[in-house]
Every structure is written in C-alpha cells, then in structure tokens.
Design the sequence.
C-alpha cells in the first residue's frame, strides 16, 4: 500500500510518499515559507536529483494542491494519508482514523501546541475536502506516552488546576521512540526489556521503554522540558520565569521566545545551535563551545540515569536523530559520563557511518549501546495501513 505522510507546521509542510511493503520512498519534499514571501518546494524523487520549485504558497491549501499535482506524475495511487500531529492531548492513546470527532479533538487540544495543531487540523480538513475518497489517519506524537504510569505523568500541582487545564506530562517524539523500540526489539529479541531511547536532534528527548511500554520521558507538558536542545533551555527552575518577569521586566511572550528560540546550545556556545559548528568551535579551542558540549553530555547522562531509575534498570541504550545518528563525539561524550555504570563503547564501532541499526558497545559493556536511525514517516505509514489497510 502507498501512503502519503504529511507533517504540517505553521509555515511548512513536509511530505513523503512511500510504499509500506517495500519501504521504497517514491517522493519526498518540503513546502517552505507558506504564507511568507519567498516560498518554495524542495522536492526529490526516487533516483532523482533534489529540485527547488519556486512557487507562491499563500496558504496550506495551495501547498497541498501543488504536492498532489507533483505526485500525480509519479503515478502511484495513494491508499491513505497519515498526518503527524504534534499534540494529541488527553484524547489519543494511539493513532486514530480521521472523523469529525477526532478532527475536533485535534483543535480542542491545540492551545497546548498552537503553532502546530491548528495548521495540522486545517491540513487534515483540506485533504478530506479535496480527496474524499482517500482515508486520513491522525498520528499524535504524544500517543506513545499517554499510558505511562501516573506517578510519572502527574505534576504535583493542585488537583483542580491539573484537572481543569489538563496539565500533565505529555512528552513528544513518541512516534520516533516507538519506532526505535520496534527496531531494537526486532534485532535484539529477548535481550532487550528495558530500553532508553535517546532522540537527540535539534529537539531532543529520552524515553524509558519497558517491554514496549513507555514508563517515562524527559519532555513534559510541552517539548521545552528535559534535555538542553539546539535553541531550547530544557528543564530549569520554574521560578526563573517569575523572576525574569518581575525583576527583569520580560513579558511572558519574551520569555517564551527566549526559552524556546534563544537558549540551549545556541546560548551557551554563543556560536550556533548546530552541534557540528559547536564541535568545530570546541576543537579550535572555543571555551563556550566546550562548555556547551560538556553541559549536553552532563544533562543527557543525568537524564539517562533518571530514565533507567524509572524502570529500575536498563539493558539497552539507543541513539537516534540528527546528533544521535551522526555524531560519534556526542555519543562518546554521553557514554563516557556513564562509565561508572559500566557503559563501554567500542571507539572503532562508534566511528562507523551507516544507515543501518548497529551495536557500538563492547561485549563486556553493562548496557548494550546502539545507533538506530529513526524513521517516523515509516512508523506513521504503518499506522495508516493498520487502521485503513
Ligand atoms: P529535528 O528533526 O529535531 O529538526 P534532526 O534530528 O534533523 O532535528 O537533527 C538536526 C541536528 O542534528 C542538527 O541541528 C545538528 O546539530 C545535528 N547533526 C549532527 N550531525 C549531523 C549530520 N551529519 N546531519 C544532520 N544533522 C546533524
């Protein structure tokens, strides 16, 4: 079955058309700067070159119309559409077929992720209107975390506040963590029961997974919590917000922008949010870049131990996403801080570059350490087949 996977943001729309049976990706691309001057579509087809199509994209409807026009030429009938939804809120313990009701839920929980959910709901609606013969599936990034134990998701705030505003740990990257569990389990079989999946990209989160069930994760009500990320600060004392507001005179919106867009590795390194630039800076003796790396290793190792504690043990660690898949230096930096736990990686295996999942720990390591390239689009497509197949 061919599935079109759509990942819509407020000003972008990523798409991928793939065959779930063969895993072949026929086409993929990104509509960028929707509603902003200078919009374009970056498009790539199986065996072809990347193309940049400069087209006016005043809104998401125009973008989808273009995408379907481009895909028409490939001549692969679309059996279903899977929509990545950032926030499933209190409604989605798993993926769901789009109906009037489930679509309304995506909008109802949108205040938790306003930049994403409204655009995603609009795009789902447009797809339903334009192609009523094709089924649509909602794949929320939070669904995998929905059933974690209450002691993990509940915040120690007054119960009426928690209930009224649906405040809890929702987590994120759930589709990626679910894919990582699936892949590790396929490869390791019974050797893996307690996995810490380390999704380290420009957004980053860890997830404790015991026999396929999420036990805890590092992102919270929103994806600002947990690890230090490219431009996000991760966990800090919540009173920092009151202090910046009352004493620093920053508005709540200023603080929101500061903590989401001007913090993290970018702020500490004062160079870049990209780990490659920071590694280069550190090699050239830049002390701020070195501190950014040290803090990243420190926090990742610390939260790894927190995830292990939530499962009362850990047997497997898997690195994934931009940094986790591509940076031997970052992997070694995190693993070295876990040497006290008996974690040992093989330096030669750590240097290997490959698109295949692989073990990089030594045979005598207390924990099996792996690199597992993530594939959220494939996981979304599998859900579409399961629900519409
Ligand atoms: P997201 O999907 O959250 O935007 P990614 O998982 O694509 O992020 O990760 C992007 C980050 O991965 C980059 O900002 C960069 O810091 C890091 N990275 C390190 N090496 C590479 C590489 N070879 N290719 C891509 N990203 C890399």
Sequence:
């Amino acid at each position: 079955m061919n599935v079109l996977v759509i990942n819509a943001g407020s000003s972008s729309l990523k798409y991928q058309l793939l065959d779930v049976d063969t895993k072949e990706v026929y086409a993929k691309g990104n509509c960028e700067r929707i509603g902003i001057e200078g919009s374009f579509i970056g498009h790539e087809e199986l065996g072809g070159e990347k193309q940049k199509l400069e087209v006016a994209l005043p809104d998401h409807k125009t973008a989808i119309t273009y995408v379907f026009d481009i895909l028409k030429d490939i001549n692969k009938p679309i059996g279903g559409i899977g929509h990545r939804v950032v926030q499933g809120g209190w409604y989605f313990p798993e993926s769901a077929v789009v109906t009037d009701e489930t679509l309304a839920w995506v909008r109802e929980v949108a205040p938790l992720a306003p930049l994403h959910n409204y655009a995603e709901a609009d795009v789902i609606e447009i797809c339903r209107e334009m192609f009523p013969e094709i089924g649509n599936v909602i794949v929320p990034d939070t669904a995998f975390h929905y059933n974690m134990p209450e002691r993990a998701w509940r915040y120690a705030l007054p119960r009426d506040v928690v209930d009224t505003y649906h405040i809890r740990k929702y987590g994120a990257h759930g589709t990626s963590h679910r894919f990582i569990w699936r892949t590790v389990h396929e490869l390791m079989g019974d050797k893996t029961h307690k996995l810490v999946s380390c999704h380290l990209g420009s957004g980053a989160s860890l997830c404790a997974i015991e026999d396929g069930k999420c036990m805890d994760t590092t992102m919270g009500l929103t994806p600002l919590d947990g690890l230090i990320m490219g431009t996000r600060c991760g966990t800090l004392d919540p009173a920092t917000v009151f202090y910046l507001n009352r004493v620093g005179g920053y508005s709540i919106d200023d603080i929101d922008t500061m903590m989401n867009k001007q913090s993290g590795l970018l702020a500490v390194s004062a160079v870049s949010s990209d780990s490659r630039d920071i590694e280069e800076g550190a090699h050239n003796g830049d002390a701020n870049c070195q501190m950014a790396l040290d803090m990243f290793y420190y926090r990742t190792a610390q939260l790894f131990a927190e995830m292990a504690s939530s499962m009362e043990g850990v047997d497997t660690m898997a690195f994934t996403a931009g940094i986790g898949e591509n940076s031997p230096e970052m992997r070694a930096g995190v693993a070295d801080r876990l040497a006290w736990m008996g974690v040992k990686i093989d330096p030669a295996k750590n240097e290997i570059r490959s698109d295949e999942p692989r073990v990089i720990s030594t045979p005598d390591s207390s924990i099996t350490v792996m690199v597992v390239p993530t594939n959220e689009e494939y996981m979304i497509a599998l859900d579409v087949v399961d629900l519409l197949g």
User: Anything to note?
Assistant: Residues 42 and 52 are 5 Å apart (CA to CA).
